[in-house]
């Protein structure tokens, strides 16, 4: 078991919490984390890149010049790739970049990312993530009290309304409900901030 102190959103002590070794106490593996991040980024890639092939460019399809007697190579349509304005050979086409990754590997990747934050000292547990008013200034003051600059804040089933509004214009800060927690967002920020509700939901999820 991993014992970690709990803070309030004002930076004061609020007791301790014991975290499960099966979720927060694993030895990090860079190969699994890399596989999961690659799967995430490939899945969200649009794949809408497209160039025109020789059958799609708007050029005449009639024979450019007579077959024999010119001393030049035997060409037909000006839409061939070797001509200026012709179609592109083997150009990009609209496609999906997504690839399969077993569910067990994805789940393991999330547990390894959480464990990596614990090992690096980049995990903070807060009692709850609530602000009295939806003011960015108040949220920045909270960030200073907790010593945060680059952070992912994960709340319970729903992000507290004032927090979501106050944090959306702050750079290097992401706020997610616990259902949206993912390996890429955990690793791209220096600090992971979990509420007690988020910890309970994660331990219930991986029980």
From TrEMBL:
Belongs to the universal ribosomal protein uL4 family. It holds the Pfam family Ribosomal_L4. Forms part of the polypeptide exit tunnel. Part of the 50S ribosomal subunit. This is Large ribosomal subunit protein uL4. The keyword Zinc-finger does not apply. It comes from Terrihabitans rhizophilus. The gene is rplD. GO terms for cellular component: ribosome. Keywords: Ribonucleoprotein, Ribosomal protein, RNA-binding, rRNA-binding.
